[in-house]
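Quick one, T. Sequence first:
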Amino acid sequence: MKAYPDTSFLCSVFRTQIHSPRADALMAGQTGPLPVSGFLLLEFRQSIRFQVRLYAKDKSKGFPKHEATQMLRDLQSDLRAKVFEVVPADWSDVHRIAEDLSARYTEQNGHRLADILHVATALHLGAAQFLTFDGNQKQLAQAEGMKIPV
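Structure tokens:
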């Protein structure tokens, strides 16, 4: 497996953001489906729904429901078209790797559980590259020998 994305990368693919041109360029260069885990998709969908809640409470935050609905439709369309492919993970192995990463890096660098789980999933799946725009995740993935092409 060549590359594995995180939620920040998916957000830049499905909603125009500062990093979207880089995400779009990388997606255009893909030669096959980009692997994703069920956990990654859950976090992405959850983050979209949370942004709708933020927007409903304060229009200067998040984004409206119609944008969220379109993002979720686009994701489903890309899954059906095999732009992204849900790959199975052995979650007990992912958790073992995550525990090791947590023990080695969290006190020093302050990694969140979701970030550790994404990097652990990428390692479990044998990814050589980690696609992220999150500085803390980038640091963790690089410490584990993965390249960050974005």
